[in-house]
Amino acid sequence: MGMIYAGILAALAVLLFFSRKEKIRAEPDTPTLSRYFLKPALWLYKRYQENERAGEDGKRNGRTERKGKKTGGTAWGKRKEAGLRLREELRLLYPAGVKGAEERFHRYQVEKLSGLLLVCFAAAALGGLIRISGGMEQRLTEDGWLRRNSYGEGDAQVRLKGQAGGEEGWEQEVELTVSERRYTEQELEEMLPQVRAALEQEIRGENETLDEIRSSLSLPSQVDGYPFLIAWKSGNYERIRADGTVNNEEVEEKGEMVELTAVLSCHEDTWEEIFWLRVCPPVLTKEEQRERLLMDEIAKEDEAAAYEEGFRLPQQAEGEELVWTEEHSDSSLLIFLLVTGMGIMQYRFMDDDLRKRLEKRERQLLLSYPEFISKLTLLMGAGLPVRAAFVRMASDYEHQKKGTNGRNYVYEELLLACREMESGITEVEAYEHFGLRCRLPQYRKCTALLVQNLKKGSAGLLEALQEEAGHSFEERKRNAREEGERAGTRLLLPMMMMLAVVMVLILVPACFSFAGM
Description:
Blueprint: H1 2-18, H2 38-60, H3 65-93, H4 98-136, E1 156-164, E2 170-178, H5 185-202, E3 229-234, E4 256-266, E5 269-279, H6 286-304, E6 316-317, E7 320-321, H7 332-381, H8 386-403, H9 409-422, H10 427-438, H11 441-456, H12 461-490, H13 492-515
Antiparallel strand pairs: 1-2, 3-4, 4-5, 6-7
């Protein structure tokens, strides 16, 4: 394979040499790496075009006509058809004249070929590098010596092939794990003093010496540069735990000696290194000393008055009089900030709430329009004029509203229009105001018909209202279908959650039943 990679790279180098005089300009959207192969791609494409022209000339002259019909005629025709289709697609993407479209086609072919050359170069280069790196890591020598990894480098996976050259020659591949090189027992024992010295420095942690331990220790599981695994044992777990935590709250000032053992292991061999540590009480600040003193005094008073309703706090400490006051937790600032934040949030989202209510109002107006227009048409068909029909519908709504808490925005606007007419506003203005407040085009169309009735007469009004009522009911059906689709979309998440619950109810008992088999 190495020869193949080298051959591909050599062929690309030859192409770069022969195409050095070609002239082609890279487009802004041409990938950076592909630009290096534009000249070789142009050189190859020109050679390809020359061969195509020579083949076409031969066919015209009849020298290869019979052969083309038998072997290559069909393939050549398909290739030509694909080229025409590609030209048409490029013409749609890059509108230009005939000459510009042909140049775009040639440019497209060159860029496509440059990308192919780039891929070939990358594949050959990566393959060659991997081949070389694999050869550099070769572990087997010619005389059959298999090299291990050095100390601490870990095990190595090796794939080998054994061949037998007898009468019945055979070969067999095997994969094995080659362990790293191991230290001898003498080499390990020679390392122990260095390991002990390194541990004496490391386990101190933030303490100055092992003879004065006041804070936690640092107990490593390994020491860099050495092959030992380390486990720790404490002679007094009340003072020093295996994780290095030190409990020295109740230690006297002179300190307490604790034995700490490091168990070093490598392969099957183990060694123990013992360290003696003096655990001393923690160094307290003045504030911590005063707090401990006060707590001790309070504990004495509490113990002395354990059977009484309360106890008296100490009146002196360090030879000075004490005055006690009770501190109360004040969460008023937090409550103030939370309530203020809620107010700001409410102020921020009030506009959104108003917008939602307006959308709800418009939705109700849209759904109530068929009922409104049909009632109006019915009352006018019974002989009532427009104003009387408005007053009748508003009166019916007021009687119905007393028995229910529901609010219908259409009839609320209708009531307002009736009150405007009672206050002296003309019918035309009242109807126009009614349409403007409702805002929807359906109501504006209805009020336009009513205003036209007042201005030009009632000829054809009833027929127009009946036609509008028919259209409104068709619109209501469409709105009902949309509402059903929205409801189905809202139910999708609960249905998925219910499906998950059902799957759990089915799978959990099944898993327990299989586990009990």
